[in-house]
């Protein structure tokens, strides 16, 4: 499905970084950053432009090829890994930051990935997440069409035990990220730091 979605020349979520990531990116010290479910690379390329050593992971080889092209267009380098997050190992204490922007997974897999994220951060490392909440089903402006794949703040706080939360909120905001995320949305946003 994702290869098909990314097949067009157009960047379906745009080429600009996610607003929340851009807003909090100044809190990241230069270092190794892992971007999960990175798709066409907009967030990874943005972070590489800020001096980070970025690895973008996605199940879609088509999306990651577009990420490489965007990196070349912007004059930066990123590493890419085609992988299913169910099988992707995050080495313990190996990342200065992990980013998951609209990375919607089945609940059991999401819990597993979030446990790996917490373990994979170095002390002082940060996790940045924005995802749609179940209230997004009222807006129909992007995201999965089923509540099972959406996230609540309460669930995220439980799944990310081990992080100190600098930002942990559910809000409504206008999202203009390509044509697949366009309009008013209900989101959860996390900026967590590993002590």
From TrEMBL:
Q: Does the keyword Methyltransferase apply?
A: yes
Q: Pfam families from the xrefs? A: Methyltransf_25 (PF13649)
Superkingdom is: Bacteria
Sorted alphabetically, the Gene Ontology BP terms of this entry are: methylation
Would you tell me the protein name for this molecule?
A: Class I SAM-dependent methyltransferase
Keyword annotations = Methyltransferase, Transferase
Q: Which InterPro entries match?
A: Methyltransf_25, SAM-dependent_MTases_sf
Keyword Transferase attached = yes
Q: Which CDD domains match?
A: AdoMet_MTases
Q: Which residues form the Methyltransferase domain?
A: 33-125
Q: Which GO terms describe its molecular function?
A: methyltransferase activity
Q: Which PANTHER family match?
A: PUTATIVE (AFU_ORTHOLOGUE AFUA_2G14390)-RELATED, TRANS-ACONITATE 2-METHYLTRANSFERASE-RELATED
């Amino acid at each position: 499905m994702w290869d098909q979605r990314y097949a067009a020349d157009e960047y379906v979520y745009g080429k600009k970084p996610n607003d929340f990531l851009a807003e909090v990116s100044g809190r990241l010290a230069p270092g190794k950053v892992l971007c999960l479910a990175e798709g066409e690379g907009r967030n990874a390329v943005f972070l590489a432009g800020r001096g980070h050593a970025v690895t973008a992971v996605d199940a879609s080889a088509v999306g990651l090829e577009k990420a490489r092209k965007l990196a070349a267009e912007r004059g930066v380098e990123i590493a890419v890994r085609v992988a299913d997050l169910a099988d992707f190992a995050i080495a313990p204490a190996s990342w200065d930051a992990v980013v998951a922007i609209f990375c919607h997974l089945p609940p059991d897999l999401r819990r597993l990935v979030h446990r790996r994220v917490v373990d994979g951060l170095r002390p002082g490392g940060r996790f940045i997440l924005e995802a749609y909440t179940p209230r997004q089903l009222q807006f129909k402006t992007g995201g999965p069409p089923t509540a099972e794949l959406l996230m609540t703040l309460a669930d995220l706080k439980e799944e990310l035990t081990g992080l100190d939360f600098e930002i942990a909120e559910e809000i409504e905001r206008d999202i203009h990220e390509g044509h697949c995320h366009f309009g008013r949305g209900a989101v959860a946003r996390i900026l967590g730091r590993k002590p």
